[in-house]
Write a structure and sequence with these properties.
Layout lengths: L2 E2 L1 H10 L7 E6 L6 E2 L2 H12 L4 E5 L14 E3 L9 H7 L5 E2 L7 E5 L2 H6 L13 H7 L3 E5 L8 H9 L10 E6 L5 E6 L15 H6 L3 E6 L2 E7 H14 L7
Parallel strand pairs: 1-3, 2-4, 2-8, 5-9
Antiparallel strand pairs: 4-7, 6-7, 8-12, 9-10, 11-12
């Protein structure tokens, strides 16, 4: 397929079980499709049209290896750019997008439940805990959609790590941070951030765990391999494994 259109994306996601009421958390590599007519905005509009009565969530991550108690991140929900790709960066600027208030692991959402999905993230003690949109997606029977990427890009793996309490994932001390909300007011929070100096991990070892419980559907759109993951199955089964074997993902 030389050119990918919005219609191709919608049809491909429909074939993988995504319907108008679905909630989807999308990780993406724009280049994986091949040529998309209209670029990132076409992909975004196709996602929104596919779940016209549901929700599209994209990760708008801003955390860096320098973040910690001595160098706390500064986050403005309105303007801090993300590093998760052209689709999320375009999406967060789109009219109607609501971004969660978190200094390293925010998401942006467009959909009927955007306020609910994003609203409790500010209360997270760790970036992807039970207050985060990554967990709420599972509570809502939502899906994780990987477009041209594998489990290494699947931020919900961090949610599983945090719920299971693996010993290598978080910094030992909390970081005190200041965030700026949509109204321009500052808010101070204290949070355990990710430890970027942790041992090497392989997130892809969790894929067979999810597949074993029929939690993954696989398809193609253009040149892109698409994985649709049942978020509830993923969190339930992966947390079980990580609680039993906390070093399961270490290389």
């Amino acid at each position: 397929m030389n050119n990918v259109t919005a219609e191709d994306i919608i049809a491909g996601l429909r074939d993988l079980g995504i319907n108008s009421n679905s909630t989807i958390l999308v990780h993406s590599a724009m280049s994986s499709f091949g040529h998309v007519e209209g670029g990132a905005n076409t992909v975004i509009q196709a996602l929104l049209n596919t779940v016209s009565d549901g929700n599209v969530i994209v990760p708008t991550l801003t955390g860096t290896a320098n973040d910690g108690p001595d160098r706390p991140p500064i986050f403005d929900v309105r303007s801090t750019p993300c590093w998760t790709g052209i689709i999320p960066e375009t999406f967060r600027k789109r009219e109607g997008a609501l971004r969660s208030l978190h200094p390293t692991h925010s998401v942006s959402v467009i959909g009927r439940d955007a306020s609910y999905i994003t609203g409790d993230h500010v209360n997270s003690i760790t970036p992807c805990d039970e207050h985060s949109p990554y967990y709420i997606n599972a509570l809502m029977k939502g899906f994780i959609v990987l477009i041209g990427v594998d489990f290494e890009s699947n931020t919900t793996v961090h949610c599983c790590e945090e719920l299971a309490g693996v010993p290598y994932h978080l910094q030992k001390a909390k970081t005190n941070m200041t965030m700026t909300g949509y109204d321009g007011s500052a808010r101070k929070i204290s949070n355990y951030l990710h430890d970027w100096d942790k041992p090497m991990t392989d997130f892809n070892v969790l894929a067979p765990v999810v597949q074993e419980h029929n939690g993954i559907r696989k398809g193609k759109i253009g040149n892109s391999t698409i994985l649709v993951i049942d978020a509830e199955i993923m969190i339930t089964e992966c947390v079980k494994v990580l609680k039993q074997h906390p070093l399961f993902m270490l290389v």
